[in-house]
Amino acid sequence: MALTFTKETNGNVTVREGGAVVKCLQPDLHILCDTQNTDVLIISGTPNPYDEAAEFKFQWQTVTAPTYTDKEDLISKLCADFFNSQVTVSGGSTPYGDNAAISSVTRSTSSVLLKAANTNRKELIIHNNASGSLFVSFVTPATVGGGVLIGAKETAFFDHARTDAFGIWKTGGSGGASVTEITT
């Protein structure tokens, strides 16, 4: 049966199958696509290929609205027009990375190295598990108010960021950052 996506005036996305509503989705979801499979997953939280908390799963070929030319075109349109999301692709080959390493960095009110430069890096994922704001910079030193702000308990994704990554917290305290590096 055909699936259609509709953006509602409140920003939510309604999915219909044969005219009947099958799912109402928030616009902040992420789309996860497996290159070895025709399924597309829309998941909440982080676009983690190992996260089992799928909000909605469907065969991309069943979608009739929006119109599209191929799977990549459909995913692009869903991201641009319906969801304020990033696309993460798994199950494929080296363009998306094959290995992950996780490290921890202690919270500091001085600029600290979060992750050293790596020419094989495909993506850098930084989760601020502290109660205060973290500012991330790809030039040293990181400064409060400069760079990319990652709020308390939030996550940021940096595609193809191969340089050193530095961070500084606005205030002291416990916690820090979990840094995941995806490489080839």
Give the count of helical stretches: 1
Q: Could you state the order of secondary-structure elements as H and E?
A: EEEEEEEHEEEEEEEEE
Beta-strand content estimate? over 45%
DSSP strand count: 16
SSE-based structural type: mainly beta
* Number of structural domains: 2
Topology diagram in text:
Blueprint: E1 3-7, E2 13-17, E3 20-25, E4 30-34, E5 39-43, E6 54-59, E7 63-65, H1 71-82, E8 87-90, E9 99-106, E10 112-115, E11 121-128, E12 134-137, E13 148-150, E14 155-159, E15 165-169, E16 176-183
Parallel strand pairs: 1-7, 4-8
Antiparallel strand pairs: 1-2, 2-3, 4-5, 5-6, 9-16, 10-15, 11-14, 11-16, 12-13, 12-15
Description:
- It contains 1 helix and 16 strands.
- It is mainly beta.
- It has 2 domains: 88 residues; 90 residues, Jelly Rolls, CATH 2.60.120.770.
- Strands 3-2-1-7 form a 4-stranded mixed sheet, with helices on one face. Strands 6-5-4-8 form a 4-stranded mixed sheet, covered by helices on one side.
- Strand 4 and strand 5 form a beta hairpin.
- The chain is elongated, with a radius of gyration of 18 Å.
- The N and C termini lie far apart (38 Å).
